[in-house]
Amino acid sequence: MVSQDQSAQSPGSELYEGINRNHHQGDFGEIAVEALCIAAGLNLAKFKRDDGTDYMIRRSGAKRRTAPYLDVQVKSCSVLREVGDFWRYDLDARAFEDLSMVDYQGPPAYLFLVRVPKSQSRYTVAAETGLHLRAATYWLSLEGENDGVRRSTTRTVSVPRANLLTADALAKLFDRAAKGLAPTVSEQPRGGI
């Protein structure tokens, strides 16, 4: 008899021999975001080149030229530092600069941080109830948070644990964008940057 929560596990990394672990992790993080968008009835476009945005997301069936949309940078990691009600994450300096820029003409931009299991063999759980993705995604707006001090490599950001990305949370981000309201960090629980 198979337990409902039994993973289809491999003994280890030999299944992934010759494949870059970071690429697998990044691919899985993006799949988790895609699954959330599909569950929320959203349409998304993946960019071929990394220009600071991984996806453009908008409501399905919306009129392209008038509907709000979001720009999203997806990052994934298997280990996050917990500090109080926040996850601390070292975001590369270029991504921070892109996401913290205030753009009055463009769409709101968000960081979607996907927490994944340490072992690729634990990314999914196959059960009679369905295939379950083991990923938790959190959102953060950094718009207007750039203090002008250039960093050479990384910038530590605090992502509120309360900002768990769900289909309902995605709908609220779109409702805010539709009202023309910029996503501001000051309206989110604070944890320092």
Please explain how this structure is put together:
Residues 28-176 form the DUF4365 domain. This is DUF4365 domain-containing protein. It holds the Pfam family DUF4365. A hairpin with a 2-residue loop joins strand 7 (124-127) and strand 8 (130-133). It contains three helices and ten strands. The chain has a single domain (20-179), classed as Trna Endonuclease, Chain: A, domain 1, CATH 3.40.1350.10. Strands 1-2-3-6-9 form a five-stranded mixed β-sheet, sandwiched between helices. It has a three-stranded antiparallel β-sheet with strand order 4-5-10. With 193 residues, it is of the alpha+beta class. It has helices at residues 21-39, 93-100, 167-178; strands at 42-46, 55-59, 69-77, 81-83, 86-92, 109-115, 124-127, 130-133, 136-140, 154-160. Helix content is 20%, strand content 29%.
Largest sheet: 5 strands, mixed
Strand coverage percent:
25-35%
Count of extended strands? 10
Low-confidence stretches: 1-14, 184-193
Question: Average pLDDT, to the nearest integer?
Answer: 80
Order of strands across the widest beta sheet? 1-2-3-6-9
Return Rg in Å.
17 Å
CATH topology: Trna Endonuclease, Chain: A, domain 1
